[in-house]
Amino acid sequence: MQPILIATAYIAAQMIADISSLKILQIAGLSVDGGTLIYALTFTLRDMVHKTAGVKNARMIVMAGGVINLLMAFMFWLVSILPADPSVGPQDAFNSVLSPVWRIVIASIIAEVLSELTDTEIYQAWVNRHQHKQQWLRVLVSNAVSIPIDSLIFCWIAFGGVYPPQVVWSIVLSNILVKVGITVFSIPGIYLVKEKTNELP
Fold first, then answer.
1. Between the CA of residue 133 and those of 46, 54, 126, 139, 194, what are the distances in Å?
2. Using 50, 70 and 90 to split pLDDT, how confident is the model at 200?
3. Domain boundaries 2-192, CATH class
4. How far apart are alpha carbons 118 and 165 in whole angstroms?
């Protein structure tokens, strides 16, 4: 039951983050895409999936997250182009808010899959070497590598050429800072779940 709940939370956070990324916020003078506020949790949630269900299932949930987000974007696009029922009245708000920006969708999925798979391999390498010791450090080390990869890939594919370079770099920096902060806050979560044992990578 525990791995299923964690995997569900991981997928949900991925989907909410992709939708929220459509708005750029300003926090403490830095530009931040809205999805960052919850997306940062996915790295620790992925680590928790890894711990409870093993490396093979962690890889699978990362790929599943990418496919589900692509399906979600396709569904939003399909609904946005189908004719609205005129008897209901204007429904332009749906298209304005949820009609996908494909550049952001593709950027998000590429960044998610590559960074989360990187996180998976670093996490597994740590487990292979240190076993059950210093679980907080395995989360910190794997996330410290995957978070910058995610932020650089996503921000430059999604916003490069759309916004001035200084704005894109501001989004990259703010993404990394927010994600690192949330990672540190979420690290104790790794101790709330039981380790899957006797699995080959």
1. 19, 17, 9, 12, 14
2. very low
3. mainly alpha
4. 26
